[in-house]
What does this fold into?
Amino acid sequence: MIRKSANEMAASLASGEVTSVELTKAHFARIEEVDVKVRAFLHLDTEGALASASVIDERRKKGEELPPLAGVPLALKDVLVQKNVPTTCGSKILQGWRPPYDATVVKNLKKNGVVILGKTNMDEFAMGSSTENSAFHPTHNPWDLTRIPGGSGGGSSAAISSFEAPLAIGTDTGGSIRQPAAVTGTVGVKPTYGGVSRYGLVAFSSSLDQAGPCARTVLDAALLHEAIAGHDEKDSTSIDAPVPKVVEAARRGDVKGVRIGVIKELQGEGYQAGVLERFQESLDILSGLGAEIVEVSCPSFDYALPAYYLIAPSECSSNLARFDAMRFGLRVGEGSAEEVMNATREAGFGREVKRRIILGTYALSSGYYDAYYGSAQKVRTLIKNDFEKAFLSADVLVSPTAPTTAFKIGEKSDDPLAMYLNDIATIPVNLAGICAISIPSGLAKEDSLPAGFQVMAPAMADDRLYNVGAALERELLAKWSKPLLDFAPELA
Amino acid sequence: MKYDQVVSAFDPVLGLEVHVELGTKSKMFCGCATLFGAEPNTQVCPVCLGLPGSLPVVNRKAIEYTIAIGLALNCSIAPYSRFARKNYFYPDMPKNFQTSQYDEPICKNGYLDLEVETEDGIKEFRVDIERVHMEEDTGKSLHVGGATGRIHGADYSLLDYNRAGIPLVEIVTKTIEGTGKYAPLVAKAYVKELRDILRSLGVSDVKMEQGSLRCDANVSLRPMGEKKLGTRSETKNVNSLRSVERAVRAEMIRHAGILETGGKVKQETRHFHENTGETTAGRSKEQAEDYRYFQEPDLIPIAPADSWIDEIRKNLPERPSERRKRLQSAWSVPDKEMAAMVNADVLDLVAETVELGADPTKARGWWLGEIARIANENEKWAGELPISPVNVKELIDLINAGELTDKLARQVVEGVINGEGSPKEVVAQRGFKVVSDDTALMEAIERAITTQPDVADKVRNGHIPAAGALIGAVMKDTKGQADAAKVRSLLLKHLGQSE
It folds into this structure.
């Protein structure tokens, strides 16, 4: 049962073949069995999950009509607040904090009857591409336990690829949903900025952060997307428009006549040969299905990474100022408020977080603002313009999701720049506020590890991602004759 | 240095920053209540506590109020303005940044015309307004232990976040030049006129004592004829209109003392002390703080529709200065009396009493007379006393009906202020009753004549002023409950005299 898709589980629940309590228990059993190796979770809410599962079962027994995902378990990235459940953001500074409120995403999940199993590991405050920056422990890639599961949402991607949960929520500031999906052979979507409420998502970089679905199939991701998306008056940047019809698109999967633009700047040097090979194969498949392949150029993308590493740290230096020991979380030291604040922040934040706070503080300082933050904002506009131009000749744009497959744990820990480069293909999407999906494109020849195929679409055209993704997924599945994850080694 | 010497040697330049807490029912970025004086930390939520994950949503009413203020101050309203984060650490500021406006304020370039009452008559000044912008208030720190109540030397501090997130509007003037010796009066008149405008707009309760209107006064001096501005100080903790005038005057004298002896004024924050009338140094501002302003990514720009601005403009109330002119002519009040009402700040109270149907002259008499006297005695403003225009109207009605004498009415005012109830209730409880029964009065008059026969003779012989002694005796006899005018007419008639 646990290897089924969420959609299949939902069908089994609806037919009475299994109860939500049984399904939830089965997942907890799996977690018990394999999470000692994977270490995807930071906190399990066994009691809460079983309680909500049994409520769903009761309601179903009474003959109530339930939402599509009612009773299906899910893993929640620990950057979203859930009432009375520990929320750490992978940081010591929030240790012991139990939020007094639910994030809107969590509220929507509860409204849809989704059973939240627990909170997943992540790079501290979502800063990283490997989940090694978690203050608690690294998470291991189920394909090879010596490798990273991607980041920052490595806990969520590892949980679904190791069958600890069929669904997960991630957040994507520069690729934190898509890159983990790519390196674990799963599906991850960064919705349009403003498509999913940020209320209750602990901010790393407010203008870039976006929560989205992680799943094993395109349809599952679409079902979850529809459950969490929509306008929220508590988030001023939330878009007041109907949610794109993503489930319908995921069921359609028809690319005939769709213009697919290959971004010239997102391939070639720095990209692993096996990753590029899988990318080309997917392109050929889409072409064979009747899609029109065109090449587009986005020259400003060369500046995306530096612009991102000014904007995100600048915003984070301000967003993370509130962690000061005054009202919640860790408190270290004695003496004046200032001394306690200093000691707490010194003890509570990890190295990468401090690095970015310092970087951002510097970039916003008077005298440097124009050269750094100001210029980065201009680059952001140029990148948006590049995308707009590209979308004139293509309905969707494509690239490999990440330049490489999963690297070894520890391999890039001492080289932040090498780590940052892993997000080269995902960052432009965040800077422009548009949407993108990563779907598994197969295993790279040289290391037999999963590679990801990224599809990008204009703002509020999220349905296009699912349409193209579903078509590609269907053909690849036929080619492999079984789901990609079935090629992964058995963990138990 | 004497003030006269200061203003003959130096030319003062002012800059005034006024912070106003808006009277919206809910906070700037969340739905929490804004009641003053609630139990600490009872009007808070994840947003105004700055809890991780929470996000701000702008209060539309606060924007409406700010636009109204801008329009009333003749500002232009920006078609597009943004919020910015002002970053600095302070325990009572939940997010460790204040959501404010920086280079894109909502209102710009206005002015306010003042009529300043001086020893040389009424002088007119125009104060130019640089900007009006929105921001959120901080929480409050209460420093416990130590001698000063300030953070240094305190044993510990308590934090109350009820105020955190209450909408504030900051109104900043351009430099105010050319006021000369009237500078302190202009400063006071500006804050007063601004306060009256804000009150008339209904956007704030503008209580300086409760901190809903706060003024920071920037003062600098330059030698007469010099163009270049001198170094300024910024005086805070100016909590009343009187303090505005005193603080500016004190700073002018202090600066002059430094400059005269060849010293240099330090650019710093000063604290005004109401009891001594002096200022002391606060934190030094020689090194400008770097607030790392950047646009608030959690909020979208404010782009008020023209139709909305027009609607707000259409609903602006009458300007206080115009209203004063209108009332003065409607009530036929002499200039001096009008100024007295404005100075005692009882114009609104008189107007309300008149609106209830009272005679303007009588209403003015009570608010400027007995009530003002009691207010002065208690070092309060008449409006703070527990006596309302409704009470005063009732009092005047009782006098008109002959149920109270002026003397008794003064005691009734005292009773109302003491919390004994409405005028009618005070009259009933204290057993006041005007003796209007002619027989009883005549008996008292007879007694007075018997005890003072000489005086009575004088009156009989036509020396009318002597009657005062007899009337006084009658009033005493009747415990003040007689109508003196009636006593007088009965007495004179009885002694064969006429008015």
Remarks:
- Chain A has a mean pLDDT of 97.
- The first helix of chain A runs from residue 6 to 15.
- Chain A has one domain: 6-302+378-487.
- Chain A touches chain B at residues 80-81, 87, 89, 94, 97, 99-101, 103, 198-203, 205-207, 233-237, 314-315, 317-318, 321-324, 326-328, 337-338, 341, 361, 364-366, 369, 373 (CB under 8 Å).
